[in-house]
Design a protein that fits this description.
Blueprint lengths: L6 H13 L3 H13 L1 H23 L2 H7 L1 H24 L2 H5 L6 H16 L2 H10 L11 H31 L6 H23 L4
Helix pairs in contact: 1-9, 2-3, 2-9, 2-10, 3-7, 3-8, 3-9, 4-8, 5-10
């Protein structure tokens, strides 16, 4: 259908990719640990929105053009790395008292968390390379509806990823609720998450194509 090949294999591969921890999972868990379940879920939805952008770009050939341009690829790589480092530094610089007594994010804060999740995904060049290399394996090059095939595969991946990431965010946030009653532990978790974000940013900046 629509030129899609080996669809069951695609679903199985996406499932395995979801359950294997990666930068998106680390970011979502970090947000759940630092700010609670609502923050983690909104971050997961933001990451899914970023995947929607990559799916559209792949369907219309924009991702391939971007991956083929060293200059454009480098801009996205370093912008994504700088953004992760900035998020990590914000957690490290946060005052312990504020971290320990943090309330659930307000609606405006939730929108900000959604955008942060969105940007961490869109500005990750690894995701661009993934879409360029992974999706074409499941689309018949002779098919007349390749764009529709890419869009359908992207929709399936987004739905599966959203379900998994939301579950991860909910579980991480639930397990961390008790830590909110222990200021020292909460402060330690914030520092750990902030350091992890900085490490992810540094790793992204040094990534070789």
């Amino acid at each position: 259908m629509f030129g899609i090949t080996a669809f069951p294999l695609f679903v199985g591969a996406v499932f395995l990719l979801n359950v294997t921890p990666g930068p998106d999972t680390a970011y979502i868990v970090g947000r759940s640990v630092a700010q609670g379940r609502a923050a983690g879920v909104m971050s997961a939805l933001g990451v899914s929105a970023g995947c929607c952008v990559h799916s559209l770009a792949t369907a219309f050939g924009l991702t391939a053009l971007l991956a083929a341009s060293p200059a454009a690829f480098g801009v996205i790589q370093y912008a994504g790395a700088a953004y992760l480092v900035w998020l990590g530094l914000r957690l490290l610089w946060q005052r312990p008292g504020v971290a320990a007594q943090a309330a659930p994010p307000p609606r405006r804060g939730l929108r900000g968390l959604f955008m942060q999740g969105f940007l961490t995904n869109v500005l990750n060049p690894k995701v661009i390379l993934f879409f360029v290399s992974f999706f074409p394996q499941f689309v018949d090059a002779r098919a007349g509806h390749q764009a529709a095939a890419f869009l359908l595969l992207g929709a399936v991946m987004v739905l599966m990823s959203t379900a998994w990431n939301t579950l991860v965010a909910w579980l991480a946030g639930t397990l961390t609720r008790r830590a909110g009653r222990m200021p020292r532990l909460k402060c330690w978790l914030d520092r750990t998450v902030g350091t992890a974000f900085i490490a992810l940013g540094a790793r992204l900046a040094m990534m070789q194509r």
